Amino acid sequence: MPDAAKPFIFVCGADDFLVNRLGKTRYDELTADVTDEFAREIISGFANNVGEVESAINRFRESVQTVSMFGGKRVVWFKDVNFLADSVTGRAESTLKLVDDLKELLATVDPAQVAIVITAAPIDRRRAFPKWCEKTADFSLVGGGDGEGGSEALGGVILAEARELGVTFGEGAAQLLLAKVGANTRLLIEETRKLATFAGGPDGKATVIEEAHVAELTANTAEGDFFEAAEAFFSGDLKWTLAALHHHFFTGGDARPIISAMQNRNRILIQVRALVDSGEARVGQRGLDGLPKAATAYGHHFIGVTEKSAYNLFSQNAWYVGKLAGSGKLPSLRRLIDNQQDFIRAFEEIVKRPNEQNEVLREMAVRCLSAA
């Protein structure tokens, strides 16, 4: 519940979806007993330049200073504020002056006359205004900070959502969901709700979201690595691979994303194979053992590579790498290198035969898997 002792509510964080979701909860709490629709107002704080920042703050000022028609308390939500970020607009001297004006306005507002909710994402917490809000307002920081935490922070989001829905994630299910969806908070939450509904069954009792549920029901939106054809190919199952290719092209798919997915996975497996052959890692029932130790020994070769990439095994999630390596028999290094050459050959072929992409990939699959 809102802190009645504070003059306004301030919700901020790196993720606009999470920030606005909590902001809406606070706004709904404040407006629950407000029957006069004119006493409720939502003002957009989104601005692309200094001129729009000034317009947004002026609209907010007018709303806050408007007297309720029937003498009751007004509730104003200043939503989607983005000019408090470390951006060109946020750093502009004119913006900083306007933010000072906003601070003066908030300092003079009578909370007995108007209740205020401000939601801001992203935000530069080093600046004076957020620090002042933290001391003065009913302050909430969503997500733990300015984007740090990565998959760990997102994992906390879906685990919290599952608890609220009365379900839990089984072993490997949460990690698989993160790998398939990626850093899309809104979609992660929606997928968690969908999975919870499915896992709950007809009785709706608390139960477990299993890894198999995620594999079957969640679409592959993060990267191309989870295409069915890639899964089938690296399992070594030619019949499944050909069926997956048929399904892909029957629905109007293109060959290039499949080749890209296969190349990316193959690059990772080449590096895994090299570590396994050297005895520095081992593929077991739980995935790949020894990756952190190998990263200590070889990570310096990738200095300057900060983004996740199939070229750098150590930029990958350790659990995800274990799933790739353990999903089927790990091919020999020679076979993996030959695969990469076949992928290049297939790409060259689809350039020459753009209307025969299905046939090109079927031929490639037969060559690779028959020789494996």
Automatic annotation (TrEMBL):
The keyword Nucleotidyltransferase applies. Keywords: DNA replication, DNA-directed DNA polymerase, Nucleotidyltransferase, Transferase. The keyword Nucleotidyltransferase applies. It holds the Pfam family DNA_pol3_delta. GO terms for biological process: DNA-templated DNA replication. GO terms for molecular function: DNA binding; DNA-directed DNA polymerase activity. GO terms for cellular component: DNA polymerase III complex. This is DNA polymerase III subunit delta. It comes from Rariglobus hedericola.
